[in-house]
Write a structure and sequence with these properties.
5 helices; 65 residues; mainly alpha; 63% helix
Length: 65
């Protein structure tokens, strides 16, 4: 599953996730469109995104594979 599909399935937009994670919308869009792999972001950011999306980080890795 693409990250963009997953965030939309959780009821988030790129803008909302960016605001809550403290990153730019452009960065979230790069992750959402698979131009930048979200699994390769910093550990802190990955954990923050997982927390915002209310998903276990290990489960998020599985979803994105």
């Amino acid at each position: 599953m693409l990250f963009g599909e997953y965030i939309r399935s959780k009821g988030f937009t790129a803008k909302r996730l960016a605001e809550e994670a403290g990153i730019s919308v452009r960065t979230v869009e790069a992750y959402a469109n698979n131009r930048r792999p979200v699994k390769k972001c910093s550990a802190d950011l990955f954990l923050t995104i997982a927390k915002i999306l209310d998903v276990d980080p290990y489960k998020l890795i599985e979803i994105l594979d």
